[in-house]
């Protein structure tokens, strides 16, 4: 995929979204409040500098009656109120959750789980993505909203649905099965080709007619992995098609940009956003810290870099995040003092030109009544409100950063379909997951001061000094060839274990792993030798490793480290095939070292590749640089409990002070340095 072309297509021939500096925004749900509260809220928004407000996200039941008629009285009023106060509107189509009257009249639109049971109204997104009845009803609402407000001067941006696929990404109903069969016929053409792709000679699964194929509902054994993989692709495509359908309705009435809020985050994996990104005019993401993870802030940094990758390097929108706790995790932790500012500016540092929150005022009822908001249940006499005001002030001072970009010289390949294949039901170790390697390598690169662009397999790799391929289990031949060409042109390469194992049909490539890059790496892996949970193995370098080992044969490479004990005792654990004739070095890592050991590996690889590193980066201290044609901005974000000292020269936009040579960043603080000159 040519992401530069995607970027050009997304911004051509349509009115682009241009933020007012770094936009400060929120979701607002006026239908939950008396109109007298609206006026108070809008006055407070003006006071703290809110510039963009998303409304009508869940407005369907308030806009449309069972007889099909529409009542826009309240929506008209809130749009006019925001407009009169100089606040631009991010207008939702309101289609994210059907009203009870629709599901009562048409229960066939309800989604079916993989055990064949229905999921019912009472929550949200109670609809099947393949339902033609739901599609017609949703497009009728989108048409009515777009027709009414398509030329309204308050509208700056259109917002299709909300978090498409958050709860209903996979539906296993009969309507979905019929749509799946249509998708398969378009993909494979013949039953014979589908049988070949799915390997249906195994377990007597050979199909003789399209009608025999259903959705991969729960079975007595594990399911056909190729069928499950294709169902994941199909499900992502069905929701993408819904996005396109609503977008096209809007475009009949408005030339303003259209987007939807992606969910680039640890716990949403069902949607292949590389395929969605070209369909919106600006990339927008929702992100919430996940305290179920060992390193929530590391996941935040990776998600922001990946969102920038989806935008092709262009600025993007943080459509939702939280001032404090959320309502949907087992332990909904409050943010520490100063953390909201740090989290917000971490996104800005990594390319966001808009910082928006769910939501403006904390709900008093409903499932999200304990979700934090800009205005808490306590109101404006609180520590949180003081931090909200501070954030508004800081974002106002960072306005000149808008439009600048982050540019890395390290490319990290990431793939949703590889994630699906890696974490499938049948794999060598259920303790090893795709994101283990992705996050581990990203952390090591980040803490070493490298700037990382997250890119799709097959994307152009020109200009990158280093390409990192962590656990890319599923690789297409054409995408592997792009990596080969980049290394032959001089880029260096780091591949980690369980990469390059299967093709796009989840078929193993024979002859020794990783077949697709054996020659490039100069190795042959003869056998996987995973470890039991809690077990560790030593390497001859003194490093400890866990989860995985392999029986690697060094064919044409230097062995840099070996397993010392364990099931792969004596086998290479880290290899390097030195480049020649202009080619770059190709490294292979056959295990998951501890953090210190991985840092040493990454340091060696970065040094050999000649990657420029931003001074001052360290565990808990992120250093990121954005730049425009004539100016650079260095973000220093100190997540630690100790002061950090980093080299810097220029003007600090956060404190309004000049910096010359060295900067002390207090514990928990953020500094943004306008550099004296682009370097």
In total, the number of strands is 27
For the biggest β-sheet, the strand order reads 12-11-13-14-21-20-19-16-17-22
Radius of gyration: 26 Å
Structure class: alpha/beta
Per DSSP, the total helix count is 18
* Beta-strand proportion: 15-25%
Q: Judging by the overall fold, what is the CATH architecture of the domain at 410-609?
A: 3-Layer(aba) Sandwich
Shape: globular
Low-confidence regions: 1-12
Give a short account of the largest sheet. 10 strands, mixed
Provide the CATH topology of the domain at 410-609. Answer: Rossmann fold
Quaternary structure annotation: single chain
Instruction: Provide the CATH top-level class of the domain at 410-609.
Output: Alpha Beta
Q: Percent range for helical residues?
A: 25-40%
- The CATH superfamily of the domain at 410-609 is Class I glutamine amidotransferase (GATase) domain
Mean pLDDT: 96
Distance between the termini: 30 Å
Distinctive features:
679 residues, alpha/beta, TIM Barrel, Rossmann fold, Immunoglobulin-like, ten-stranded mixed beta sheet, nine-stranded parallel beta sheet, 18 helices, 31% helix, globular, disordered N terminus
Structure description:
The chain has 18 helices and 27 strands. With 679 residues, it is of the alpha/beta class. A ten-stranded mixed β-sheet has the order 12-11-13-14-21-20-19-16-17-22, with helices on both faces. A nine-stranded parallel β-sheet has the order 5-4-3-2-1-9-8-7-6, covered by helices on one side. The two termini are 30 Å apart. Mean pLDDT is 96; it is low at 1-12.
């Amino acid at each position: 995929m040519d992401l530069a072309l995607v970027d050009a297509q997304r911004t051509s021939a349509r009115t682009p979204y241009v933020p007012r500096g770094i936009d400060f925004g929120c979701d607002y749900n006026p239908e939950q409040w008396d109109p007298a509260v609206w006026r108070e809220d809008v006055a407070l928004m003006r006071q703290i500098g809110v510039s963009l407000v998303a409304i009508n996200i869940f407005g369907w039941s308030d806009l449309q009656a069972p007889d099909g008629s529409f009542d826009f009285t309240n929506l008209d009023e809130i749009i006019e109120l925001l407009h009169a106060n100089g606040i631009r509107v991010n207008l939702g189509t309101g289609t994210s959750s059907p009203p009870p009257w629709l599901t009562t009249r048409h229960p066939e639109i309800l989604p079916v789980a993989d055990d064949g049971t229905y999921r019912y109204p009472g929550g949200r997104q109670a609809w099947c993505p393949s339902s033609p009845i739901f599609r017609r009803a949703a497009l009728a609402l989108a048409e009515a909203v777009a027709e009414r407000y398509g030329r309204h001067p308050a509208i700056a941006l259109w917002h299709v649905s909300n978090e498409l696929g958050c709860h209903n990404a996979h539906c296993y109903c009969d309507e979905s099965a019929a749509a799946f069969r249509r998708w398969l016929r378009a993909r494979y053409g013949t039953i014979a080709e589908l049988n070949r792709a799915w390997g249906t000679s195994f377990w007597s699964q050979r199909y003789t007619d399209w009608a025999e194929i259903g959705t991969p509902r729960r079975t007595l054994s594990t399911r056909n992995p190729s069928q499950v993989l294709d169902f994941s692709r199909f499900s992502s495509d069905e929701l993408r098609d819904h996005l396109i359908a609503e977008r096209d309705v809007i475009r009949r009435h408005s030339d303003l940009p259209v987007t939807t809020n992606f969910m680039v985050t640890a716990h949403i994996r069902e949607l292949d956003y590389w395929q969605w990104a070209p369909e919106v005019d600006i990339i927008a993401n929702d992100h919430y810290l996940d305290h179920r993870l060992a390193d929530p802030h590391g996941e935040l940094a990776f998600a922001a870099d990946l969102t920038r990758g989806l935008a092709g390097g262009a600025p993007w929108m943080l459509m939702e995040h939280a001032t404090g706790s959320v309502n949907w995790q087992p332990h909904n932790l409050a943010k520490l003092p100063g953390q909201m500012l740090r989290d917000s500016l971490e996104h800005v540092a990594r390319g966001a030109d808009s910082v928006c929150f769910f939501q403006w005022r904390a709900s008093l009822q409903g499932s999200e009544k304990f979700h934090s908001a800009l205005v808490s249940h306590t109101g404006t006499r609180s520590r949180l409100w003081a931090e909200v005001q501070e954030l508004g002030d800081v974002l106002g001072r960072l306005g000149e950063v808008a439009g600048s970009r982050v540019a890395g010289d390290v490319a990290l390949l990431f793939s949703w379909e590889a994630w699906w294949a890696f974490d499938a039901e049948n794999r060598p170790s259920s303790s090893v997951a795709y994101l283990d390697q992705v996050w581990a390598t990203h952390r090591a690169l980040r803490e070493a001061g490298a700037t990382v662009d997250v890119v799709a397999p097959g994307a152009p790799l020109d200009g990158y000094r280093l390409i990192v391929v962590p656990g890319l289990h599923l690789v297409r031949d054409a995408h592997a060839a792009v990596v080969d060409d980049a290394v032959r042109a001089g880029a260096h390469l780091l591949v980690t274990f369980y990469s390059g194992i299967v093709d796009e049909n989840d078929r193993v490539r024979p002859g020794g792993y990783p077949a697709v890059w054996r020659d490039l790496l100069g190795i042959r892996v003869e056998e996987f030798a995973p470890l039991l949970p809690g077990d560790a193995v030593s390497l001859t370098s003194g490093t400890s490793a866990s989860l995985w080992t392999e029986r690697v044969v060094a064919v044409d490479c230097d062995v840099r480290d070996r397993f010392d004990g364990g099931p792969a005792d004596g086998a290479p654990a880290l290899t390097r095939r030195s480049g020649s004739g202009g080619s770059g070095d190709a490294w292979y890592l056959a295990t998951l070292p501890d953090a210190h050991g991985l840092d040493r590996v990454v340091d060696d690889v970065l040094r050999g590749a000649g990657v420029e590193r931003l001074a001052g980066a360290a565990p808990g201290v992120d250093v990121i640089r954005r730049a425009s044609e004539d100016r650079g901005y260095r973000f220093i974000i100190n997540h630690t409990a100790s002061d950090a000292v980093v080299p810097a020269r220029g003007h600090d936009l956060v404190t309004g002070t000049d910096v010359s040579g060295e900067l002390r960043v207090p514990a928990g603080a953020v500094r943004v340095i306008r550099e004296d000159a682009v370097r």
